[in-house]
Structure formats: structure tokens, C-alpha cells
Amino acid sequence: MNLFQPEPRGAHTPRPTLRSDEPQGEVEKGSMALLEVENLSVTYAPRDAPVTRAVQDVSFRIREGEFVGLLGESGCGKSTLGNGILRLLSPPARISGGRVVLDGVDLTGADEERLRGLRWTNLSTVFQSSMNSLNPVLRIEAQFAETFAAHRVGEEVGARVVELLRMVSLDPGVLRAYPHELSGGMRQRVALALALALRPRLVLLDEPTTGLDVVVQRNILDRLATLRHELGFAVLFISHDLGTVLEMADRVMVMYAGEIVEDRPAPDLVREAQHPYTRGLLGSYADPRSAEVRVSYIPGRPPDLSVEQPGCRFTPRCPYAEDACGQRRPELRPDDGGLVRCLVAQDGRLPRTPAGAGPGLPVFVGFPAAAGLDRSADPPPEQAVGDPVLLVDDVTKRYTTRRGLRTTSVDAVRGVSLALRPGRVTALVGQSGSGKTTIARLVTGVERPTSGQVRFTAADSTTEVRVDRLRGRALRDYRRHVQMIFQDPFSALNPTRTVGYALSRPLVNYHGLRGPAVRERAAELLESVGLAPAGQFLDKLPHQLSGGQRQRVVTARALAPEPEILIADEPVSMLDVSIRAEILELLGKLVRTRRLAMLYITHDLLSARLLADEVLVLNHGDLVEQGPTLEVVGAARDDYTRLLLDSIPNPFSAARRPG
Amino acid sequence: MSTPVPAVRAPGADTEAVQVATRVLGRGTRLPGWFVILWRNGKCRLGLLMLAGFVLVAIFAPVIGRYDPRDDDFDTSAGPSAAHWLGTTALGEDVFAQLVFGARTSLVVGIAAGLLCTVIGLVVGLTAGYLGGWLDEVLSFFINLGLVVPALPLMVTLAAYSPVRGLTLIILVISVTGWAYGARIKRSQIITLRTRDYITAARFAGDRTARIIAHEIVPNMTSLIVVGFMGAALGAIGGEAGLAFLGLGDPQTVSWGTMLNQASLGGALLSGQWAWLIAPGAALALLITSFTLINFGIDALSNPHLRED
Ligand SMILES: Nc1ncnc2c1ncn2[C@@H]1O[C@H](COP(=O)(O)OP(=O)(O)O)[C@@H](O)[C@H]1O
Ligand code: SF4
Ligand SMILES: [Mg+2]
């Protein structure tokens, strides 16, 4: 028996009889609003900071079975809105106005008891962090049992759980596992299965695949699309990644500075976005396989919502802004087929975008070709290629783990050779677990290879350094030449230390600078990564900076010792899509102007295409493909490379859209 | 129910966030940020005020107590009177003076043993957690040993068999039995912090291990250290009172524990000297209450969701 075939509701589960609250009448089921949000506002009123109005006067509806995307940069209020709908806000946040009505029940007025009954049965959720919030001391089995028990579903739990796991493509074997024994993608799928366990009618997904690998992400999204067709639940899908949102959703709402600025069916949005902000977001996408790849970004960041701002909030970043925009606040008004909040668009004066060409709207800052990010088909001039500074020669790294009496060994990397040259970017592409990080550890001397050599030759010398033999003092000296840019800008800076302190350490240790000279040089470094005026940043703590600014600080710190080699391990994967391009542009510029050799580690082929001269594809420790970027990306020969390419969400390919 | 929804944080799990909050709060005032957070919590404020009261009493004991607590020139076993507010002991000492001086002993033991426990816990926890390897295994063995051996019987045994009696001994005995809990928490915290990218970054910036521990790790643990100190001090105060009540205390020192011991030996119950019997117990209970109240604020310190802001 398939439990999830549409059958009369309540046949198996004693469901709270909410349906009786529904308005009477001959309303067709498909067009009925399942969720109604009316003028919802949420404010954060912390004691030590000014009041922030994170969500302002938001209204929308979600129909039964509809898949709605909510898009916007981080800090625009998406998660606050989601938590407001779920009534999961905790102080200092509170709902300061409006209503949320789910299936006729006013959630804003409901008490905790009522909400508990509704959560999971009618409304459930998966967060980005859900995979980390499974109870660590309970087996997966017990977590399901608890969820069912809490809602008094007694019978047939076993069969039902297996069915749920099958739905998210997990083996029933995971039931015996503890959460930490599963990978991030598996845990996220468990979280999804739990969210669907009681067959909710609305599922709220908040960045459910952010931070996961492209292939895993693709897998989860495909499952989600199929399940939704089978089970017919409605989805509110929150993400900053417009690739996934546009690909999945029927209708997309774009949120900026706490307000909905555009609301439109997904295909229309891809074809002709009406709000300048949406157009800006779309510009950060491109197909890495095309001969010419051009991406753009919106300069600046969303405004500080604790400051009252007259007129349109997007004015400072908007290339279409007019005088009126600064004074008059646009309303969210219907236009053909959707809603838009822009004075110029409402007057029909917004220039049309060329049909079919989504990406690379020239009105936003585009990458100048010189910066190396507007890649055309011509290969770079050969004379620019210098001698390698680092050679990895037939390296194998075997990890042996002892667990009780059994020893198991894994080859994290097998027989890999590569060369890093000044002024060139070498991309190392592969899924997580493919051995990318291991290679970075071998290059930096953190690990030694089991066999093979790693050799370094400084630009101003001819003597070779055997990196695989360094220890102690010599290793410390070598590190001056090899620096790292980390994946997570939130963990790469000590939260209790100022930017100035972070930058001062390499200057003191490697250049022997003292006193005011340190501060002076630190300021220069900040300006070189585009943080100006530097004086304003030196005394800031990391949490006062945005993700992009932090990544710039991390880059400045890596540049401080004046290294020859820069290792960047997924430097943009944790950043908003809209600022990725900005950081990639900075890295590209630094490599070329300072003649750095860069090893760029990523699972994202679009960024590799934009930044790298050469691409190496790694699969389970083996190098499966290697060559100039355009060749590898444009005409992938290896199946695995093709899988990686196919996994990239692509809003512009109509072929993938289900239905 | 196991909802993947709101994850409840383990206390002390988010020490970095706490540290950031405390640094931010500390910037505006000259007070340390952790104190600002504590002060804002109503219960904690009451506890801090009570504790301040005890500290003042301890400092000004000679003025407040009026008599020397060891002066036995008075009537023996007298009930409360204008001259002796809580009466006199069987030896003819002033009970009120003893009560006031007893606050000194409790606080000195609390602070000294609390500090000692914290220092031992920090050194052991830092070494085991940061260096790892066989050293960690050895130290963890001792930490676990310290955790499973029941503290009170060990304290009693150590105190009973030691050839000398004195406050220093009491402090040492309490510290030896009480450091392990803090060490375990600090060790696991370091293991979390050690894997942060900023530690790797510091190594790439050329910093040495000692500097990394002192400048990158410890600043992210100060609230944990304060929490540990408060817990250890509370345990020490209770431990001292217990040992003294069992007659294993320092006979030269006036403390609430010795008072209770003398009161029961001196027949306070028979002579109906309720004040003598109740006062030291009540004082101890009040001091413990003040620590418990402060702990409410400390929970808020380690769990931002409980903070009253
Ligand atoms: N310290 C280690 N001990 C045991 N196995 C490891 C260790 N580090 C990595 N591995 C294994 O090596 C393989 C490659 O891992 P990694 O280099 O981290 O890949 P990636 O960077 O692509 O995520 C994985 O199978 C992983 O389990
Ligand atoms: S109202 Fe003006 S500033 Fe705002 S988005 Fe439209 S054109 Fe830009
Ligand atoms: Mg990795």
C-alpha cells in the first residue's frame, strides 16, 4: 500500500478537524488560499541596538499545492518572515502587526497548544541548519518514533518510516544510525522526511540545500519536485540562490529590505523581470558552458533597516533611479501577470530586456574584460605563463583509521600531479569527499603525502624546497609563501578580535613590523581589497561586517606576508550569490596584478569558469579530467564532469522545468 | 518531540557569541561586558546584591561583630540579649561575632578554592584539549577519575588522615576533589574552538602555540571560566561547611560549619538556644541562595535566548 497516494484525508491519521473552520461555499479546491499573510510586520527591538523593522507590511497568499519561492539577498528578511509565519520568533523579535491565516486558522492569535497541533500536521519546516539539529543522542529511528508518538500515530509506524525514507532516497539502514554517522546531505534528507512524516499541507523550506554539494543539492531538489507532485503539498521555498528557486517554483516573490518588491510566475520572471533588483539578481547567473560567460553584480548592500528611509529603498543601488525615487515610496501594484514595487516600471518606462538573454545586464556593474572575468573563447597569451612555483608530483595520500581492532585505509588522493604557476588560477573541482581539501593540506605542508613529492621554488631563488619533508621552523618559514583563504568567512576570523589585530599578526611575525607601521600597512592591505576608507574597518569586530566584507578581510590577511601561492578553499560558496561575483573579481584581479599562483578549490563550475585558467576534476581521489577551463567545461569528456555540470541549477534552461 | 525546528543549545555551547556580546556591551561602559549581562537579569542582580552584602560583612567583620569571636569571657550558653544578640556559646563566646567572622572564612575558602579549581581545570583542560594525542588520553583518564570518585567521602578521608589541620589544607582538599568538572567542560570547549578556521589562520600568520592559546582561544572562553569559577566557589563553600560540621575543619578558624558543630556538641538543642543553632545554617543557606540566583544570570550569559534584552 502506498501511504502517500492521495486518499481521503483522515483515513489513517486522526487529523484535527480544521476544515470545519473554512469559509463555506463552492470554492474550487485548487484555487483556495491555503496560507494567507496579511500586512505582516516583524520588528527586532533589542535592548542595545536601535529597533529594526525586518519585515514590513508583507501580504501574499499561497494556494493549495502551490510552490512559491522567496528570493533575496541575505539580510532582506526572508527567514524572519518564514519564522513569523511559523510563529517561531523569539525575543527580541516580535510580530508587530498583521495576520497569518493557515487554512482558516489565525496563527497569529493561536496559543502554543493549538500551534503544536498544527505544526507538523499542517505546517512543517526544514531549515539549512535542520541537518544539525537532529537530536545527537537518538538514533534516526527514535526521532521518527517520537514525531509519530507526539501526534498519536500509533499503528504501522515501521512501514511508514521506511516509506518516508524511500521517498527521500535513503536506505532503511540509516534508521540504526546516529545523526553524526550520516553526511550533511543524508541528514538533510532525514530532516525532510521528518518534515513530511505527518503529511503536512504546507512545507516551509528555508535554504534547505545551501552549503551542500551541487550533486547532493540536485538530488534533494529532484526528490522534492517528485514528492510534491505525488503528495500535492504546498511549498514556500526560501533561498538566496535564484538558480534553485527559479528552477523549482511556480511563482517567485522577491524580497528586498523587508518588503516584497516583485511577485510573478517563475517563467515570466526569467523572461522579463520588472523590478531592477530582480534584474540585478538574475545578472549573477550564467551558463558556464557558453562560449562567452558574463556575470554582473549589484554594487553595495541592502540598507540598514533601523534607519527610516524615504522613497524607494533600492534607490542607492538602482541603475534606473530617478529623482522621484528618492522621495516617493513605490507601492506593490499589479502589472501584467504579477506585482511590482517600482515607480519606473509601473509607468512602463523600464527598458525592456533583450528577449531570451537573461544574464549580464550591462546596467549593473559588469566585469571589465581586463579583470579576467569576462571570459571569451580565446586562450590567454602563452608568453604570460611562467615557470611553476609549486609542483605536485604523483602524490598519494592514504589515511589509516583504527576503530577498535579493525583498521581501514582510504586513499584520499591517488597519483595526482599538478603545477601552480604565477599569475594563473588552477581550479580543483569535485564533490565533497573527493580529496580536494587533502590536496590543499599537502600543498600547505599540514599533511605529508604517503608517496610522491611536493616541490616549491620561490620566485627569486632557484633552490627547490621539498614541502613534503618540512617540519617545525622550516615549515613555519614556508607558510609565509603559501597562504589560505577559507570557505567560511564567519569562522575564519576570531569573533573577539578586531580586523586590525587579525591583519597585524602576519605583519609582525613575517615582516617584523612594529608600532604605527603595522597599522599603516594593515590599512594599505584593506584598501587593496577594496575596503576603503580603511580607518573605518580597522577597529571593527567581525560580526559588524557583512559576509563579503569579511571575506575581503580574510583575503587581505592572506596577502599580508606577500605570498607566492594562494590557496582558496571554496571562498565564495558561503556567500550570497549576488556578492560571489564581486569576490571572484577581486581574486582574479589580485592574481593578475600580483602574479600570484592560485589553487582555487570549488564544486561550482560556474565560478571555476569565471576565475580559472585551468581546471582539474577530481573524483574519489583520482584526477579524471584536466585541461584549459573552456575545454573541460565546454566539452566535458568524463561522465563525472558532466554530472557536475548537469547538477548546476539553471534558471534559463526551460528543459528542466517540471510539468 | 524530536523536531528539527528550534534546537536547544547546550549551556556554554555558544561561548563565542557570548564573548562577542560581552565585548560589545563592554565597549560603552567601563564595566566588563559579562557583568553587564549579569546585572540585567533581575534574579542575578538580587544574588549579586546579596553577595555584595556578605562581602561587606566579611570585610567589616571587626566593626559589625563588636566582639572578638574567640573571646570567651562572657556567660556561657546564654540566650539572646541586648549585649549578645544571638546569645553566647557553651564556652562563653559571642554567637553573633562568630557568625560575622564566619562569613570571612566561607568567602575566603570559596574564592581561594574556586580560583585553584579554575586554574587546575584550565591548565589540564587546555593542555588535553589543545595538544590532544596520548597526553589527552592520560589527562582525560585523570579527569574521569576525578569525576567518578565521589567528592565528599574523598574529602572526608583526606581531611581525616592529614597530619595537620588548617584552612589551607581544607582549601587544598576541596580543590583536589573539585577541579575535574571544570576541566572536562573546558577541554570539550577547546576541542570545538581548536578546529575553527581562525586558529589555522593564526598558524598561517606565523603565531606560535602559546600565543594562539592565550590570544585566540582563551578570550573566547572567559564566560565559561567565570561560570566555572562560580560553580567551584559554591562547591567549596558547601564543602568547607560540611567538613567543619563533621569536626574535620580547622579548629583555629571560626566558620559556620564549626559553629554548627559546636552548637550540636554544646547542647544548643537542650538549652533551647535556637539562635545559635539556626543562625549559621541560615547564613549558609542565604549565601548559597545568592550563588544560585547569580547562576540564573550565568545561564543567560551562556544562552543568548535567556538573556533579558
Ligand atoms: N584525517 C582524516 N582521517 C581519515 N580520513 C580522512 C581524513 N581527511 C580526509 N579523509 C578522507 O579522505 C577523503 C577525501 O576528503 P577531503 O580531502 O576532505 O575531500 P574534499 O575536500 O573534496 O571534501 C574522504 O573520503 C575523507 O573521508
Ligand atoms: S523605484 Fe526607482 S529606485 Fe526604486 S527600483 Fe524603481 S527605478 Fe529603482
Ligand atoms: Mg572539502
From TrEMBL, chain B:
Keyword Magnesium found: no
InterPro entries assigned to the protein according to its UniProt record, in alphabetical order: BP-dependent_transpt_permease, MetI-like, MetI-like_sf
Indicate how the chain sits in the lipid bilayer: Multi-pass membrane protein
Key word Acetylation present: no
Q: Where are the transmembrane segments?
A: 46-65, 107-131, 138-161, 167-185, 224-248, 274-298
Q: Give the protein name, as stated in the record.
A: ABC transmembrane type-1 domain-containing protein
Membership in a protein family? Belongs to the binding-protein-dependent transport system permease family.
Q: What is its main location?
A: membrane
**One Pfam family this chain carries?**
BPD_transp_1
Q: Which organism is it from?
A: Plantactinospora mayteni
Q: Where in the cell is it found?
A: Cell membrane
Give the organism's phylogenetic lineage: Bacteria, Bacillati, Actinomycetota, Actinomycetes, Micromonosporales
What range(s) does the ABC transmembrane type-1 domain occupy?
Answer: 103-295
Q: Which domain of life is it from?
A: Bacteria
Swiss-Prot/TrEMBL keywords: Cell membrane, Membrane, Transmembrane, Transmembrane helix, Transport
